[in-house]
């Protein structure tokens, strides 16, 4: 039998790498465009330093928006699971979790709660393949241990 871990931590790996590359690319592209903003326009306007700074600022804002997709995290222990998604966070004791789902074709794992609600666990993504499968197995072990101790008690 496999030993249950004390703490399981998960975060998306492949998505984080893609987001960082995309964020850097956006900043570079906007910076290159900003250096080309000089002279007049057909409408009689003139591009100045403020327009260049604004273009770089837009690139930075775009990069921050992309990097927000690296936010998901999950941490599970004997007391429960804490999930942080792109938008929203959950701190759930095991008593409210019925099952950990990671169906074929699902983009990420999810928690089925006793009130029939479902909480996405975006930190455990199918794109991470074996890393994601192992994280789900470990989280399921923690849940099973809790359910076994509650049933025995």
3D architecture notes:
This protein has 153 residues and is an alpha+beta fold. It folds into two domains: 14-69; 72-152, PH-domain like (Roll), CATH 2.30.29. It is built from three helices and nine strands; from the N terminus they run βαββαββββββα. The chain has helices spanning 14-36, 49-67, 130-152; strands spanning 8-10, 39-40, 46-47, 73-77, 80-84, 89-93, 97-101, 108-113, 118-125. The chain has a four-stranded antiparallel sheet, with helices on one face. It has a three-stranded antiparallel sheet with strand order 7-8-9. A two-stranded antiparallel sheet has the order 2-3. Helix 1 (14-36) packs antiparallel against helix 2 (49-67). The chain is elongated and about 75 Å long. The two termini are 22 Å apart. The mean pLDDT is 91.
Low-confidence stretches: none
Molecular shape? elongated
Give helix and strand order, one letter per element, not per position.
EHEEHEEEEEEH
Count, helices: 3
What structural class do helix, strand and pairing data support?
alpha+beta
CATH topology value of the largest domain: PH-domain like
Q: Specify the CATH architecture of the largest domain.
A: Roll
Termini separation (Å)?
22 Å
Helicity range of the residues?
Answer: 40-55%
Question: Strand tally, please?
Answer: 9
Mean pLDDT over the residues: 91
Residues in β-strands, percent: 25-35%
Taking the sheet with the most strands, its summary is: 4 strands, antiparallel
Q: Which keywords apply here?
A:
153 residues; 2 domains; three-stranded antiparallel sheet; 9 strands; 42% helix
């Amino acid at each position: 039998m496999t030993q249950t871990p004390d703490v399981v931590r998960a975060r998306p790996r492949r998505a984080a790498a893609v987001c960082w590359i995309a964020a850097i690319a956006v900043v570079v592209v906007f910076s290159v465009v900003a250096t080309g903003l000089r002279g007049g326009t057909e409408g009689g306007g003139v591009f100045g330093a403020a327009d260049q700074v604004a273009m770089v600022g837009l690139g930075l804002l775009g990069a921050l928006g992309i990097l927000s997709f690296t936010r998901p995290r999950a941490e599970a222990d004997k007391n429960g699971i804490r999930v942080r998604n792109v938008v929203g966070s959950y701190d759930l004791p095991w008593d409210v979790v019925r099952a950990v789902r990671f169906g074929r074709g699902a983009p990420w794992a999810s928690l089925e709660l006793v009130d029939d609600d479902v909480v996405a666990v975006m930190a455990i993504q199918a794109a991470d393949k074996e890393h994601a499968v192992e994280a789900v197995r470990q989280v399921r072990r923690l849940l099973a241990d809790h359910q076994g101790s509650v049933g025995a008690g």
